[in-house]
Write a structure and sequence with these properties.
Elements (H helix, E strand, L loop, with lengths): L26 H10 L4 H21 L6 H34 L1
Helix pairs in contact: 2-3
Length: 102
């Protein structure tokens, strides 16, 4: 059974209602990701990392108790996820700007 953030393409892109990425992804952003990850290896890598961090964060957050090391790991994962999201959103902004100029 497919998770809510699995898309018809078989790739993993969250829809705007999912819990992945905090539900902050707009449908047009998902469409841009689907379109540009095919030809942009950096964007694809950032997106795959983002999804991996999301899974790891969710796993740690669902634990009833976290050791100090797990708590530190959780903080680090959240920082890495945010950094990656900032980078892939900047790439998407670049593509948006190119599309409006064309």
């Amino acid at each position: 059974m497919l998770a809510p953030w699995q898309v018809r393409t078989g790739k993993y892109f969250p829809d705007s209602r999912s819990t992945c990425t905090g539900g902050s992804m707009e449908p047009h952003e998902v469409e841009l990701l689907e379109q540009y990850t095919k030809n942009d290896p950096e964007l694809k890598s950032l997106w795959e990392d983002h999804l991996l961090y999301e899974k790891q964060i969710e796993k740690l957050e669902n634990k009833p108790y976290r050791t100090p090391i797990e708590a530190q790991t959780l903080k680090q994962l959240k920082k890495q996820k945010l950094d990656g999201k900032t980078r892939f959103m900047a790439i998407l902004d670049k593509y948006r700007a190119q599309a409006t100029q064309a």
